[in-house]
Design goal:
With 133 residues, the chain is an all-alpha fold. It is built from five helices and no strands. Bound molecules: heme C.
């Protein structure tokens, strides 16, 4: 009787484990599928975040330098505007016209200090504790 019971229990545990690993795996696969259809948080070949306006940004912002100069930076909308003005005044960047707003939208969305693409903000108000060894 006892043996039967423990067999039943271990069978149950095995089943649960098997179930967990298979559901995890299938979840991973569906996440992968989702990420190809979703437009945010996916990087394009240039390394810039995928977005409906990616082409416009690539066309205007990757001709003179690598997209890395963008992806390595985080600025506010005003900060990006300042960079654009600086490039226009000193680096022969052309007038972006009406595209400027779209480009700034993109930069603000993906490369602002708070955007998901960036590192998370620094933690605040941490109560540090010391490790007693
Ligand atoms: C006409 C050429 C040109 C175009 C087009 C251009 N840039 Fe630049 N950009 C430069 C040059 C030159 C530098 C300085 C590179 C260096 O310091 O090595 C620069 C530097 C930068 C930097 C670094 C600034 C810093 O302070 O470190 C960023 C960010 C940047 N560009 C973003 C952009 C964005 C966004 C666009 C699209 C709106 C763009 N660039 C389009 C020429 C250009």
């Amino acid at each position: 009787m006892k043996l039967k019971f423990s067999l039943l229990v271990s069978g149950f545990i095995l089943l649960t484990l098997a179930h967990c690993t298979t559901t995890k795996r299938s979840k991973g696969a569906s996440e992968e599928l989702n990420s190809t259809s979703e437009t945010t948080n996916v990087q394009s070949a240039s390394g810039l975040m995928a977005d409906p306006n990616l082409m416009m940004v690539e066309a205007n912002c990757t001709g003179c330098h690598s997209a890395k100069l963008i992806t390595m930076n985080r600025f506010t909308r005003d900060g990006w505007k300042d960079k654009i003005r600086w490039m226009q005044e000193t680096q022969n960047l052309w007038d972006l016209g009406e595209n400027e707003k779209v480009i700034l939208d993109y930069l603000e969305k993906h490369y602002s200090p708070e955007s998901k693409a960036s590192r998370r903000k620094n933690l605040e108000n941490i109560e540090w504790y010391s490790l007693d060894q």
